[in-house]
Amino acid sequence: MTRAWAWLVALALAGWASPGGLPPAAEGARILGVFGHIGKSHWDVFEPLMQELARRGHQVTVVSHFPQAAPRANYTDVSLKGSLTDFSPVGQIDVTEMKVDNMWDVYNEHLLLSQLAVTGCEVAFAHPDVQRLLRSNETFDLLITELFTTDCYVAFAHHYNIPSIGLSSCMMMPWAYERFGNPQNPAYIPDLFHAHGMQMSFWERWQNSWKILLDNLAYEYLYHRPSEQVVRRYFKDLPPLKEIARNVSMMFVNTHVSLSHARPYVPAVLEVGGIHLPQRKPLPKDVKEFLDGAGEEGVVYFNMGSMIRATSMAPEKRRAFLEAFGRMGQRVLWKWEEADMPGQTPNVKTSRWLPQFDILNHPKVKVYIGHGGLLGSTEAAHAGVPMVAIPIFGDQRANVQNLLQAGMALKLDYHDVTADSVLAALKEVLQNPKYREGARRVSEAFRDRPVGPLDAAVFWTEYVLRHNGAPFLRNAVAADLAWYQRWLLDVVAASAAAFVLAVLALRALAARLLPHGPIAHKLKGE
Ligand SMILES: *[C@@H]1O[C@H](CO)[C@@H](O)[C@H](O)[C@H]1NC(C)=O
Ligand SMILES: *[C@@H]1O[C@H](CO)[C@@H](O)[C@H](O)[C@H]1NC(C)=O
Ligand SMILES: *[C@@H]1O[C@H](CO)[C@@H](O)[C@H](O)[C@H]1NC(C)=O
């Protein structure tokens, strides 16, 4: 907080000291937020920004599946809640059905995610309250929307003729780079859906290049074109969605360099990792007693996230975890959605819901077994707790790769879960100091910033408002190049052609000059 104040004072002084002062503050702007994706963990990243903008005096209208529990000043909900009921099974995932870490599963995920994206667009635009909003005389100054699996919601930016900002609750999607002219060099930028680290062998770079290309093709045919068809039914004379999407002013990405590693971002891309971190609250009494009462050896915290039902785990996997925990001195706190657990050992406590961030910050928590979701990983990074990570789907593979590279986690394949492998992994992370050391290093780098992620996001939101969309932030030149120009394929082809021509010319010349050529024959008097 003190940092944020220091920064605000510095900003005010800079504005006062510069000859023209700052442009007028973007006060009381009318901001429209549109979030059609139904994943709660995504909304957890967007909600703090929308709330904070309202708190700072902007008039905020939010179309989403997650209306505020109680009315909030300057904040109007257009609730889509209950409109995507057909997809409720997607809300929770059965671990036993996931074939973990298989390349072809990524394409099954594309099928599922694209269906969800396109249905989400359809449901949002067809919603009577959204139609009422569109037909009203209401005007806005800025659109904030999620930039994830569909561009259909940027149609609002065109409809109201306003600039827009994209938010991403995960790392940048493979199809989000091009529009900002952001480098996406497959030599060192691993595809989000696959678990390559940044350092890749020749074979990995080969795979990564093709995976980025395939993911972009999947986006075009599974996500983009069907979204475009939906939007055309609701807006007349709309330019192609891609053209509107290329005008998105900025993108706020839920990562931080301490965890996602240095990579090139154009000024339009802002890392706001940690923006979702909640205010610390006192722990519930039973949890506090369980943690406080643990001995020196501490507590293992086990949570596979909100999307994966822990209870759907195959019985032999559950028994494997329990057997490993039974052989350990630590207490174990396990997120488990049912009242009791068959075979539960005395050192295990289960609960349907656990205040994860407060638990991770408890000094007795020594290791976190998790699926490598970005929010949980970020919370572990902030708290400096090392992990045993068991990635299941989506961006988890890539997040876990980042945790490994940062030296704060050990990866365990879900397939390989046995009592022995769980015990070995936990022992290694608990006993080898390098993991705790790595987590501490990441934690210190993660927290040390000139300004907190929420303040930064608000500053840049108002910056976009003040500068009419600030189109200069994106690399328009790169974004407007054709793909073969961007990859210099025309230059390589022309150089190769010039080389071939030069070789042919030299050969022809040599044929004339050298022993068997006509000159040689003449010289010999033939
Ligand atoms: C709502 O916005 C107005 C300015 O538009 C501001 O004065 C007021 O403080 C805001 N209310 C709250 C509760 O933040
Ligand atoms: C918008 O419509 C409402 C009634 O629906 C009216 O009270 C208001 O004055 C109108 N505002 C503008 C700017 O036309
Ligand atoms: C994109 O922005 C430019 C410059 O502001 C504008 O001329 C153009 O019409 C916009 N394109 C779309 C499709 O909104």
Written description of the protein model:
The chain is about 45% helix and about 10% strand. The chain is an alpha/beta fold and about 525 residues long. It has three domains: about 25-275 and about 450-480, Rossmann fold; about 285-445, 3-Layer(aba) Sandwich (Rossmann fold), CATH 3.40.50; about 490-525. The strands form three sheets. Strands 3-2-1-5-6-7-8 form a seven-stranded parallel β-sheet, with helices on one face. Strands 12-11-9-13-14-15 form a six-stranded parallel β-sheet, sandwiched between helices. A two-stranded parallel ribbon has the order 4-10. Helix 4 packs parallel to helix 7 and helix 13 (about 375-385) crosses helix 16. The longest helix is centred in the middle third of the chain and has 33 residues, at about 200-235. The radius of gyration is 27 Å and the shape is globular. Residues about 10-20 have low confidence and may be disordered. Bound molecules: 2-acetamido-2-deoxy-beta-D-glucopyranose (NAG) (3 copies). The site of one 2-acetamido-2-deoxy-beta-D-glucopyranose has 6 residues, from helix 8. One 2-acetamido-2-deoxy-beta-D-glucopyranose binds next to loops.
